[in-house]
Amino acid sequence: MTTWRLLFTPPARGPWNMAADEVILEHIHRGESKPTLRLYAWNPPCLSLGHAQPFADVDTARLKEHGWDVVRRATGGRAILHTDELTYSVTGGAEEPILTGGVLESYNRIAQALLSAVHELGLPVEMKEHVTEPAMQNLNPVCFEVPSTYEITVQGKKLIGSAQARKKEGVLQHGSLPLTGDLTRICDALTFKDEPARANAVQRLLARAVTVESVLGYRVGWETAAQAFVRGFEAGLGIRLEREEMSQSELKRTEELVKEKYGHPGWTERV
User: Fold this and answer.
1) Is the pLDDT of residue 271 over 50?
2) Would you state the pLDDT for residue 1?
3) Of 3.40.50.970, 3.30.930.10, 1.10.3720.10, 3.20.20.140, which CATH number belongs to 2-268?
4) In the predicted model, what is the mean pLDDT of residues 172-199?
């Protein structure tokens, strides 16, 4: 049985979280770290944009008013407001058996682990196979409104939003499990042509996405969800997860990458 590293990192700002995922991948590529499942949270709440998503989608005045951060991910997809959620990232070399093949093959394997994890929480989830129409992806700024291939759903509504990047260093996939709260808050962080359009986006989101609490009728804490992910990933992927901490080298490089990239407007506002 393959052993992967398990990281629980404290709630952090968006630029730190995105830098940490990239740095872990760099260290794996250099043979300094094992394939890793990292489970984490965000403080303060942060809007993350997909790699190629226009920064013009962000309503910067409203974002500032709420005290929320903004960051651009290394992965594709559309915007997510990270708050009241458990976030996971999977990083490893492209030759790692779970991550080999193309995007859809590895995405499907990880989706099986996600299914197993949310089953652990008692959620009646299923995996839907779609191919998202490019027009829908391009026109819609909100991740949880857009169906994706092998998405995890409850009664047809999206539960987990995930995105993957395959780079020369290996594979990074991360995603969000909303635990509680109002998913439509993201509409306060994005631009719309007018207020009726914003209201329509709110209604569409309510019709297409759910939180763990809205399904179960009670709140599930971050730690409870994290332990379900550990059991689900071990069962779903046939791996053993060993709890560790980020190395001093990883922590130092993460701080550097926050300054050089993820915390810098040259990256965040580049599109």
Assistant:
1) yes
2) 85
3) 3.30.930.10
4) 96
- What pLDDT is stored for residue 167 in this prediction? 93
- Which residue in 12, 76, 3 sits closest to 36, CA to CA? 3
pLDDT tens across 219-236, in order?
Answer: 999 999 999 999 999 999
Q: Which of 222, 190, 223, 225 is nearest to 205 (CA)?
A: 190
- Distance, in Å, from the CA atom of 69 to the CA atom of 207, rounded to the nearest integer, reads 26
Edge-to-edge strands, sheet with 2-8: 126-128, 151-154, 157-167, 170-178, 85-92, 36-40, 2-8, 239-243
List active site positions.
Answer: 143
Return the pLDDT at 137: 46
End-to-end Cα spacing for the chain: 43
Query: DSSP string of 102-146?
Result: -HHHHHHHHHHHHHHHHHHTT---EEE-----HHHHHH--BGGGS
